[in-house]
Amino acid sequence: MAAARAALDVPPPQAAVIESVAEFMQRVAHIEHTRCPHCRIGQFRVVATLLPRRDLPNPRGPPR
């Protein structure tokens, strides 16, 4: 690939920029997803992580 780039006089690719979800939401939607939607002052914070329940019935309708 380097030889092809040199032969075609193409600059090397730029490194990929990895941004956080917060940075992406701020850049694209102009919102801060951690801010309280009501007062816009307070911030959300993780207090617990809820895992999916495995004992729920299969979400299918009745047979036809």
Question: What labels describe this entry?
Answer:
mainly alpha
Structure notes:
The chain is mainly α and about 60 residues long. Helix content is about 25%, strand content about 0%. It contains 2 helices and no strands. It has helices spanning about 1-10, 20-30. The radius of gyration is 24 Å and the shape is flat. The protein starts with a helix and ends in a 35-residue tail after the last helix. The model has no long low-confidence stretch (mean pLDDT about 85).
List the helices and strands and how they pair.
Elements: H1 2-8, H2 21-29
Uncertain segments are none
- General shape: flat
| Strand residues, percent | under 5%
Provide the residue-averaged pLDDT.
Answer: 84
The major beta sheet can be summarized as: none
Task: Compose a concise summary of this entry.
This protein is an all-alpha fold. The protein has helices at 2-8, 21-29.
